[in-house]
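Assemble and predict.
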Amino acid sequence: MRILILGGDGYLGWPTALRFSARGHEVAVVDNFNRRRWVEGAGSNSLTPIADLDTRIATWEELSGKRIAAHVGPIEDGDFIDGVVAEFLPDAVVHYGQQASAPYSMISRQTAVETQYANTIGNLNLLFALRDHVPEAHLVKLGTMGEYGQPNIDIEEGYIEISHKGRSDRLPYPKLPGSLYHCSKVHDSTNIHFACRTWGLRATDLNQGVVYGIETEETVSDERLITRFDYDEMFGTVLNRFCVQAVIGHPLTVYGEGHQTRSFLNIRDTLACVEIAALNPADAGEFRVFNQFTEQFSVMELAELVKEAGAHLGYEVEIRHYDNPRVEKEEHYYNAVNSNLLDLGLEPRLLGEELVESILGILDRYKERAAEGAIDPRTRWNPGRPTAAQA
Amino acid sequence: MRILILGGDGYLGWPTALRFSARGHEVAVVDNFNRRRWVEGAGSNSLTPIADLDTRIATWEELSGKRIAAHVGPIEDGDFIDGVVAEFLPDAVVHYGQQASAPYSMISRQTAVETQYANTIGNLNLLFALRDHVPEAHLVKLGTMGEYGQPNIDIEEGYIEISHKGRSDRLPYPKLPGSLYHCSKVHDSTNIHFACRTWGLRATDLNQGVVYGIETEETVSDERLITRFDYDEMFGTVLNRFCVQAVIGHPLTVYGEGHQTRSFLNIRDTLACVEIAALNPADAGEFRVFNQFTEQFSVMELAELVKEAGAHLGYEVEIRHYDNPRVEKEEHYYNAVNSNLLDLGLEPRLLGEELVESILGILDRYKERAAEGAIDPRTRWNPGRPTAAQA
């Protein structure tokens, strides 16, 4: 297959490119390096010393003999992404190319607009490019479990059968997104669903849980292939953040009571899920939704797990409760269905102490690189009315 | 009250401004005249000879002694709308300031992006301005019944109680928007709901049906106050289009069989609804949704009504079926709830032959202005793959 990966320089995009390339697919990546810039702008960095994209691609070619094509540019530029799609004529597009940080989207009007513009307009440009050049191609779009929020009923996969006043219909599952970033992903789902209904495009929306982990089958073969690893309050996801905090001796930053429950998966399972989706495309006109996670945990369960794993390796890990900077429920019902990917053959790698210990061991090599000032939570969901001086 | 009206130069915005001003409220309007430009760009015009905004405002002051303030600029410019809100400090904002044509949003990637950018980013800028300067103000946002699409169950007002696997919750009503314009309104609802939950803003989303009619209590007093009246395939709504077609002797352009059922209301009822909403604000943190329509009709029912009313006035009206340029169901269940506004006191003006005859009588005065070339449907929802020459 010819597979185009948007966001192919990122935490998940780069390992995904390697995975498909290793399996013999023809791979091209698109990126504009915004993630690198945003993280630098937040006073942070990738804990892992990532090579630039050219070096990554050259290294992979040296090791595997396989060539990955690169297109550098923003998908918000409709002519750019139209040109890439028209030239490469992909069979599948895996779309990770978005601003993916909830806190970043909540800093200010400017970052909120930047997020919704980059994500929603970029995705809309992509839909037109697919319609006009490869209407049979399969869009594999990364969504997020955070689109659903925490409803008081079980979370189904994208749709729910509703019986109401003696009639019934299968309708899009209602969404309660938890940040303006999550709102942008809901917008994308709405637009993609419309494009499938109206233009007959085929798409799979992977509503992904929180990803953790660092190594994949291909990235371990050479340090120049290592993927990025974010740990700051803005771009680090919770378990990855906790792991870095443990190895550098920073208290684990639990927001509020830590009873918030979310869904999680290993980075290796992300790659397996994306591959399963790509190899089993949606039908023409079908907007298919998979909930892409393997397990559910509360934040405190993760903190306790990291504390115990850390203790075995000789780290003294403190768990500290911070005033919750987010507006979110700390006590809530949470139960999500995830059978679609399991039915297609996903074999989950479950989280345990051993796995956390292995992550801590890898991170220990790079702990001197950590920018400790970027770790404590500062981005407040509701900053209140600005003071006269700020206004 | 201090009432800020976005889109205050438009079909509904201008009469709304007059209405609130006549009732003694302090009114300011915002517009960037994009609607005038878009309609011109489509090779059409307002059938009514509308004055420019300065003349309208001067005329109103001359007649009523009341001054309406005007701010000219695009709300996509966050600093502009922030400045207007900070200066005027409204108690309520009535937001009509959007690209409101479904066909326009479906012409091309460029018009689709323009629509979603203007609507979603403009509205997002407004939410930040409210948060930062007037968090107690009430946002009255014009949504559309078209956000719901045509589900096989009754359409409730914004939310639905769902029982599922032994639990239940009241969740946002699922949406099946019918164009990229309608998608943009769904995006707005998602963002506004989030802002209410997170920042405690108060908002009412008026999911409006298709508006018809031309005169309101205030616009009839002087021809310089007349509101715009669109009739082209892009910016004209169905009943208004049919009325112009009848007086100029053009066949009524029924798309497909014409069994599509939609909800409708008189322009005078739009003003009554917006006033009711403004005088009964939502609670802090509440995202309230009203379905703003008074009756449901199929397209063929409207065509027959116009044909009969026309016959009484001596017009020979032909009903013609055109290949449907839209991707939509022509046979479907449709039943929507609209009790919230009725409960607050709305007294509907129902559609009948007499009313249509009165509209035809007014339009007859201006029929020489009609650009007949802009009437037939050309904008296709699914244009198919471009030919080599177009690509």
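The radius of gyration of chain B is 20 Å.
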